[in-house]
Amino acid sequence: MLSIYSSYICCSCTKEFVALTEDIQSMDRNRYLVCPYCSSQKIRKQHMADNLKECMQERSYRRVNGALRQK
Q1: pLDDT by residue (tens digit) across 1-50?
Q2: Burial class for 4, CB neighbours closer than 10 Å (0-12, 13-18, 19+)
Q3: How far apart are CA 23 and CA 26, in angstroms?
Q4: Which residues are CB-neighbours of 30 under 8 A, at least 6 positions away?
Q5: How far apart are the first and last CA of the chain?
Q6: How confident is residue 61, by pLDDT bands cut at 50, 70 and 90?
Q7: Distances in Å between the alpha carbon of 24 and those of 2, 3, 39, 60?
């Protein structure tokens, strides 16, 4: 079965983003995936999951003064 979500990390700005696997596979061969933050083509696939929480499970967050912060 195909996983729904795919997480990627940018090699330039080191930010992470999640994309739908179906949308990525339906793109034409002439198109390419870029980082939504810095528009760099240097991205790496990190994890594939059916649930968005599973996709974000590797990162841990804590609450500081009412805001979520990454550890």
Answers
A1: 578 888 888 999 888 888 888 888 888 777 888 999 999 999 998 878 77
A2: middle
A3: 5
A4: none
A5: 33
A6: low
A7: 12, 12, 16, 27
Written as six digits, the tokens of 32 are 């390419």
User: Measuring CA to CA, which residue among 17, 15, 20, 40 is closest to residue 32?
Assistant: 40
Q: Which residues contact 39 (CB under 8 A, 6 or more apart)?
A: none
State pTM to two decimals: 0.69
pLDDT of residue 21: 85
Residue among 44, 34, 38 at smallest CA distance from 11: 44
Under 8 Å CB-to-CB from 59, ≥6 apart: which residues?
16, 70
Q: Which residue type sits at 33?
A: L
